[in-house]
Each structure stands twice: as C-alpha cells, then as structure tokens.
Amino acid sequence: MDSKLIVDHVRLTPILISDPPLLNLQGVHQPYTPRLVVEVTTRAGVTGLGETYGDHVYLNLAQPLAEALPGRSVTDVNDLFALAEIVCAAAEKAAGEGAATATAGERAGGPSPAGGASAGTAGGPWPAAEARSGVGGGPWPATGARSGVGGGPWPAAGALSGVRGGPSPAADAGVDAGGLRGVRTAAKLRLSVVSAFETACLDALGKTLGLPVHALLGGKVRDSVEYSAYLFHRWAAHPGAAPTDDWGAALDPAGVVAQARRFDRLHGFRSFKLKGGVFEPEREIAAIRALAEAFPGRPLRLDPNGAWSVETSLAVARELGDVLEYLEDPSSGTDAMARIAARTDVPLATNMCVTTFEEIPDAFAKGAVRIVLADHHYWGGLHRTRELAALCRTYGIGLSMHSNTHLGISLAAMTHVAATLPDLHHACDTHYPWQTEDVITPRPAFRSGHFPVPDTPGLGIHLDRPALAALHHRWLTDDGTHHNRDDTTAMRSANPTWTQGHW
Q1: Where would a tag sit more exposed on the chain, N or C end, judged by fewer CB atoms within 10 A?
Q2: φ, ψ for residue 401 (rounded to 5)?
Q3: Would residue 275 show up in a list of annotated catalytic residues for this protein?
C-alpha cells in the first residue's frame, strides 16, 4: 500500500453553530446546534473533511474510532463498519452504557485521547474536563444544566399545544430526538459516525489522486444537483434574545408564502417543502394551499414527522392531493404508513420508517412508501447511499434526499453522491440556507435552485480554520445547555406546559 494513503492522525472538533428558531413537532431549534467536524490526515499531509451530528453520544463513539484509524489506508472505507462495531462497542461497555438506550442529556464518560487521535483546534487536546464537558474523558453536564431561557416573541401557550388525542407516536420512548429517524439503536448511531469518517477518507483520497469524490463513486451523471427550499413555521427570535437574522416570524400561511418568495428570489428554488406537525392540520393545509396559489405548478411537499393518525393523514391527502408532489411521514411507523398508502394515490415519502437496510424489506413488501429520502449521515456514508439507490431502483421506489441542520462539508458530500444517482428525480432537501455560519470558504451558493457539482479534487472545499476555531471555542465555553440538541426543552423553556401535538 502506498504510504501516502496511510492515515497519520485524526482530529475531532465539536462545534456549536447558530440556528434560527425553527418550529417542528418536537419543539423549536435551540440557538446553537452541535456538529462534529472530522479531519483525517495522511502521512503525506493531505487532510480530508467529514461532518456529522455533534451530540455527546456521537462524540463518545467517534473518539475510539479516531484512535483506531491511524495506520490504516484511506481506501479501506468498506472496513470502517466492522472497525466501528468493534471499537465503539468496547467503548460503550467501558462507559457502562449502551448507545441503544442513550438519550440526549444523559451523563456519560468517554475514553481519553490516545494514539493518533486528537481533539479540538489549534494544537490538539481540549482543555481540562470541566471545560470540555465529556469528550475525551470528562464529565458531561447533567440534564438540569439545560435550563433554557425565558421571555421573548413567541406565540401564546395554546397556539402551539395543539393536542388532539394524546402524545404523538413520534414521542414514544426510544425514538431518536435529533432527526426523527425512528427508534434509536446502537447500529444507527455508529452509522452516523462512520459516515463522517468515510467522507473524510474519500476527500483525502480524492485530493491525493487529483480526483473529485464523485469520480471515486463511479462518476457524475449530472453537472448540478437540484435542491428544494425548506420552509418552516418560525419565531422572529429565540426566547429572551434579539433576532439573529432578518427573516422575521412565519406563523401563518402569509408568513410561509413570504418565506418561500424570499427563497425563490435569493436561491432560485423551484420546489418547496414545509415542515408540518406544528399547528393543527387545517392550518398547515391552508399554508400549502397558499403556496400552490402563489407558485402554481411548483412541486410542494409537506412533512409533519408522523404527527397525524391514519385517518387524519388520509383527510389531508384528500385535501391536498391535487397539489402535493409527495406527503412525507404523515404518520409514524411502517404499519401506519402502509394503511395510508393503501387508501390514497398521493405518494408517501419517508426518512423515518426506512432509515436502515434492515427496515427496507417490511416497508417495501407492505407498500408503505413510494419515495425514500436518502441521508448519508443515516445510512453510513456515500457508498451505502448508492447501495440504497440501487435497491430503490430495483423495487421501483423513488429517491429523494433528507436534510437536517448541516454545514458546507455535508452539503458538498450530499452533492457529490447525488450527482452519481441516475434515478434521483426529486429535488434534495437542505437546511443550508438557514445557516449563517460555516467552517468552509468560500460559502457555497445555489444557482437557480441547483448546486454545481465540484470537479476539483476531493470534495472541492476548503476549511476555514479560524472559523472552525471560533465555533469550537463556543462549544468549549458553553455550559452544556447546547451540547445535545433538545428541541423539546427549548420549547418548554418558553412554554412549560407545551406537549407534542397529535392529530
């Protein structure tokens, strides 16, 4: 093996990025969201970049994998899954907790940095345990540390409670709190960590060989990838804080349409997805109708994250069947989705009931979905995203792409793999236009709703190390309130009696 391809060291940098007060089934986005930046550096001094979730449970798994990678080749991405299963399982056992039952805010300890792994920016290990809050051996803050803030411009309590019939199925114990990807398991957590390491390895390999990542995946079939505007009901500002952007509130159909017009003007997006599950279905139906009137013929999507019963889902499908491109996860679980699909012609899409290969046979056999939203963070990287696409093609299932809060590293990875998928016939989701901060330079720009596929080596991006250092400093100095994403706690800091809606 060429020594230039051997991993010399891995750097893990947890960061906090600004996030606007976007509303969803689980509550509201906190002012800051944790992300993890992975840097894999070869003996030739070439560094590849990856990005994934930055909550403590992911950091705890990333550390032992970072320690195990030096001495291996960046070409050995297929072996990352077996390696992660071995080293992460050992770390879970040593920590005295299994990732399958870990929830945001639990206390846990991780192994201290060793071998070729380092953490942080500008020179290696993080500060003492009290400052670094968990990764590399220190204590994590207790749940009570996330006290939240009060005061500010948000709706009255009754405007967001919306409970008709009890808790949402998505609120069941064990359901993933960050991305609503179904029941949280140890395997799913590891896949999200592996995805960042695989991306970093491919970036380093491409830079070494002088090839773009899409060439390493078999070559692109398009020169640009279409993305969809991601619309949210939102507040003007986080509770108790001044606005951090000029978008203003969007709490009614007029506000949603204004948001869409701005996305259209700034980025040229042709399709629009509305995050639902926030207000009663009639109000969200009205928002989609308003969008259809403002943008006739444009593809429209609605995603309530499983907030509705089967009957409510069918009622919404009847109301919006003439304007929806697809209805995403109207109800929670494969069985419920199958019951809906059997009684409507509106295509159902998912990023909740099909997020692993093990979940595919049951969902496809029952006809529960017609479109799967791929996400390389969920499936374990870019190669496995292509494997998912091949299965969807085999069974006549459409393919789109899911998004959660992310930075430019993930956007580049999404674009490279999307460029290689012949049957990607739906615009991809992206949160990126909502993010005002990044760790790459220059900032990526959409053109007519598309993002050009880079042909430069690797991912075609450049790390902004001062920006990375600043966002890592924010993570280090945070009191633990934002180290784990917790939309529910953020909402209840504004409205203590709030509960998830279920209609």
Answers
A1: N
A2: -140, 130
A3: yes
Euclidean distance between CA atoms 211 and 202, whole angstroms: 10
373-387 pLDDT tens trace: 999 999 999 999 999
255 and 249 Cβ atoms separated by less than 8 Å: yes
| 32 within 8 A of 107, measured Cβ to Cβ | no
Report which of 30, 422, 426, 394 is spatially closest to residue 217, judged by C-alpha positions.
422
Alpha-carbon 377 to chain mean position: 7
Sign of the Cα torsion 368, 374, 375, 380 reads positive
- Could you tell me whether strands 348-350 and 324-328 are parallel, antiparallel, or unpaired per DSSP bridges? parallel
Q: What is the mean pLDDT of residues 491-496?
A: 95
> Where is average pLDDT lowest: 164-173, 183-192, 204-213, 423-432?
164-173
3 state DSSP class of 33: strand
**Among the listed residues 348, 287, 405, 318, the one whose alpha carbon sits nearest the alpha carbon of residue 18:** 405
Q: How far apart are CA 331 and CA 51, in angstroms?
A: 30
Which DSSP string do the residues of 316-381 spell out, in sequence order?
HHHHHTTTEEEEE-SBSSHHHHHHHHTT--SPEEESSS-SSGGGHHHHHHTT--SEEEE-HHHHTS
The C-alpha angle with vertex 285 and arms to 266 and 256, in degrees rounded to 5, equals 25
CA distances from 136 to 95, 131, 428 (A): 12, 11, 36
pLDDT digits (tens, 9 = 90+) for 69-107: 999 999 999 999 999 999 998 766 655 544 343 333 332
31 SS3 class = coil
Whether residue 462 is predicted with pLDDT greater than 60 in this model: the reply is yes
User: Is-contact 490 28, C-beta < 8 A?
Assistant: yes
Instruction: Enter the pTM of the model.
Output: 0.87
Query: 355 pLDDT exceeds 70?
Result: yes
Please state, in angstroms and rounded to a whole number, the distance separating the CA atoms of residues 138 and 446: 41
Cα–chain-centroid distance for residue 438? 15
- Closest CA relative to residue 304, chosen from 328, 283, 285: 328
pLDDT band for 118, please (50, 70, 90 cuts). low
- What are the two backbone dihedrals, phi and then psi, of residue 127, each rounded to the nearest 5 degrees? -65, -170
Alpha carbon distance 258, 384 (integer Å):
38
Residues 6+ apart with CB under 8 A from 202: 48, 74, 77, 213, 216, 217, 382, 458, 459
- Write down the catalytic residue from 188, 238, 275, 383: 275
How far apart are the C-alpha atoms of 374 and 387, rounded to whole Å? 10
pLDDT of amino acid 1: 72
